[in-house]
């Protein structure tokens, strides 16, 4: 084959120097406003929130001893601990005060509600000498109406149930005129009937309307 690749002759001219010398100049430093830790990438004052504080501190001590002193000198740590515990203390106090105030307000509201609530025992004449007794308002004193109704049924050996009155409110209706006994039971806090102040109970009478039979 005639084709013979000749090796190129060494060029006579001066060889161009390689573009980058082995020891490249340091990259130009960008205008640094904020210093970032090379270990955890946070600003040094936040290194403690990273997971590499020990290495962060080593780096800072090496590269920025002045900052290291600022953040980790005994005085700095002392000041910081003092501040932190004071902050923590203040926060704790505030939190517990808030909690207390909240609980107090809640108890206050519940108490006000109770005190303005009223239990009415109403004797209602259904027919000639036939009565029912309707008790309204016990639920405001955290009394379970069903349990109370059952207690009345047992006590008086008569019908007793929770029903809605004309206003759509729950009340207990007991067969028969047992209003005096019911009053006594509530005043005495018998069984589930606890927590109603005497002054919050009243007995009323609903007479049969004239003309009816
Ligand atoms: Zn760091």
Automatic annotation (TrEMBL):
UniProt keyword annotations, A-Z: Cytoplasm, Ribonucleoprotein, Ribosomal protein
Localisation per UniProt entry: Cytoplasm
Predominant cellular place of this UniProt entry's protein: cytoplasm
Region (Disordered): 1-30
Entry-linked InterPro entries: DENR/SUI1_TIF, DENR_C, DENR_eukaryotes, DENR_N, SUI1, SUI1_dom_sf
SUI1 domain: residues covered: 119-186
PROSITE patterns (UniProt xref): SUI1 (PS50296)
GO annotation, cellular component aspect: cytoplasm; ribonucleoprotein complex; ribosome
Biased segments, Pro residues type: 7-30
BP GO annotations: formation of translation preinitiation complex; translation reinitiation
Record carries keyword Lipid biosynthesis: no
Domain of life: Eukaryota
Keyword Ribonucleoprotein on entry: yes
Pfam families, per database record: DENR_N, SUI1
Any GO molecular function: mRNA binding
Similarity-based family: Belongs to the DENR family.
Subunit description: Interacts with the 40S ribosomal subunit.
Free-text comment on this protein's domains from its UniProt entry: The SUI1 domain may be involved in RNA binding.
Record-given protein name: Translation machinery-associated protein 22
The species this protein was found in: Piloderma croceum (strain F 1598)
């Amino acid at each position: 084959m005639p084709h013979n690749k000749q090796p190129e002759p060494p060029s006579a001219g001066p060889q161009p120097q390689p573009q980058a010398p082995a020891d490249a100049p340091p990259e130009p430093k960008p205008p640094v406003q904020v210093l970032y830790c090379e270990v955890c990438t946070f600003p040094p004052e936040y290194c403690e929130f990273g997971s590499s504080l020990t290495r962060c501190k080593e780096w800072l001590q090496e590269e920025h001893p002045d900052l290291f002193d600022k953040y980790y000198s005994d005085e700095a740590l002392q000041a910081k601990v003092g501040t932190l515990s004071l902050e923590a203390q203040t926060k704790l106090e505030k939190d517990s005060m808030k909690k207390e105030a909240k609980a107090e307000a809640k108890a206050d509201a519940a108490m006000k509600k109770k005190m303005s609530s009223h239990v009415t025992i109403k004797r209602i004449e259904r027919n000639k000498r036939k009565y029912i007794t309707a008790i309204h308002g016990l639920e405001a004193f955290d009394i379970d109406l069903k349990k109370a109704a059952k207690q009345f049924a047992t006590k008086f050996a008569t019908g007793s149930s929770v029903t809605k009155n004309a206003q759509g409110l729950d009340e207990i209706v007991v067969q028969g005129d047992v209003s005096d006994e019911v009053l006594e039971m509530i005043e005495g806090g018998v069984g589930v009937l606890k927590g109603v102040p005497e002054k919050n109970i009243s007995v009323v009478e609903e007479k049969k309307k004239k003309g009816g039979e």
